[in-house]
Amino acid sequence: MLAKFLFAVFFLSAACSRMDESENEKVRKYNEKREAIYRLDHEKIFAHCDVFEKKREKYPWEDFSHGGILKITKEYFRCKGSDMNPPIKVIRGGEEIFDCGGLDKHGLPFEQNKEFVYPILIELLNYIQLKSNSLVVLTTGHRCPVHNRYADSSKLASTSKHQLGAEVDFYVEGLEEKPLEVVKWIMDYYQENPNSEYNRFFKCQKNPEGLKQPGWYNKEIFIRIHDKTEGRDFDNRHPYPYVTIEVRYDLQKNESVVFDWEKSVKNYLKY
Ligand SMILES: [Zn+2]
After folding, report:
1. 149 CA distance to ligand 1 middle (Å)
2. 158 CA distance to ligand 1 centroid (A)?
3. The CA-based dihedral angle spanning residues 24, 26, 28, 32, taken in that order and rounded to the nearest 10 degrees
4. Cα(146) to centroid of ligand 1, in Å?
5. pLDDT (0 to 100) of residue 99
6. How far is 268 from 188, CA to CA, in rounded Å?
7. Dihedral sign of CA atoms 124, 130, 136, 142 in order
8. Following DSSP, what letter does each residue of the chain receive, concatenated?
9. Cα–Cα distance between 97 and 89 in angstroms, integer?
10. Residue 172 in contact with residue 132, Cβ under 8 Å?
11. Residue 181: CB partners within 8 Å, gap ≥ 6?
12. What is the CA(192)–ligand 1 centre distance, in A?
């Protein structure tokens, strides 16, 4: 009997407790007031920062472009050897001649612990892009000796200054058939940067390398035009004439730039 009584008391008290909670919730909701939290100008704890426009930093390529055409850097001069595995080869005179593996296998020529291409070549190519508002297409920049031999095994090419980063082959998009206009821009560059020592150009007495077009030179560079059928090494298997600029004289060091076998073979990093 006592047990029944105690159970009834417990049951009633639990029911009352639930009713209290529900009542409390109703009261809380009735009195509830919602308000957004605003930050104020004079707040000291979380003071506002001054707002100002921040211009985004330029992407690297935006700093190096002329009217949407990317500026040429020494990266454009990397060896165009094939990275095929196994290495591709050509058979000439019964001999297998392998390609170098390309830019994954070696770097550019080294000068004072940095990769190096003669700056005048880069400057002239960018000048041509600026003046023509057209893309300069490099077909050959630096050639390591291995790729140089693979691309062109002739005796003449064996001493090519491509191996020193001192020579470049290229054509200009839209002006493929007008290499003489390109030559004129190269000469214009020197007229805009006058220096009595090297702004005068001379025409070669004999056409260089037996080419159809004459060559031109000043103190610093030598210019050649390869006709559609000339100079078709593996890097120049396109159907256009192309222009070659070769560095003759290093104005910084005040010395002639000549082919150096040891320099061409040893002076670049191999990976
Ligand atoms: Zn190479």
Report:
1. 10
2. 14
3. 180
4. 6
5. 96
6. 33
7. positive
8. -HHHHHHHHHHHHHHHHHHHHHHHHHHHHHH---------TT-STTPPPPP---PPPPPHHHHTEETTEEPP-GGGGS------SSPPEEEETTEEEE---GGGTEEEEEETTEE---HHHHHHHHHHHHHHTS-EEEEES---HHHHHHH--SHHHHT-GGGGT-EEEEEETT-TT-HHHHHHHHHHHHHHS--TTTS--EE-SS-GGG-SS--EE-SSEEEEEE-TTS---GGG-SSS-EEEEEE-EETTTTEE----HHHHHHSEEE-
9. 5
10. yes
11. 132, 175
12. 35
Q: Tens digit of pLDDT for each residue in 79-91?
A: 999 998 888 999 9
Q: What is the pLDDT of residues 115-130, one digit of tens each?
A: 999 999 999 999 999 9
Q: Which amino acid is at 47?
A: A
* Mean pLDDT, rounded, for 68-83: 93
* Site of tokens 């010395």: 255
Q: Amino acid letter at 29?
A: K
Map tokens 């004289």 to a residue. Answer: 249
Torsion sign, CA atoms 180, 186, 187, 188:
positive
The Cα–Cα gap between 51 and 60 comes to 27
- CA 172 to centroid of ligand 1, rounded, Å: 24
Expressed in angstroms and rounded, the spacing between residue 170 Cα and the centre of ligand 1 is 18
User: According to the model, what pLDDT value does residue 168 have?
Assistant: 98
Domain ranges of the chain: 68-270
Query: CA 226, CA 210: separation in Å to the nearest integer?
Result: 10
Residues 205-220 have pLDDT tens digits of 888 888 998 899 999 9
- What integer pLDDT is reported at residue 232 of this predicted model? 94
**Alpha carbon separation from 14 to 5, 29, 114 (Å, rounded):** 15, 23, 85
Of all residues in the chain, the percent with pLDDT exceeding 70 is: 87
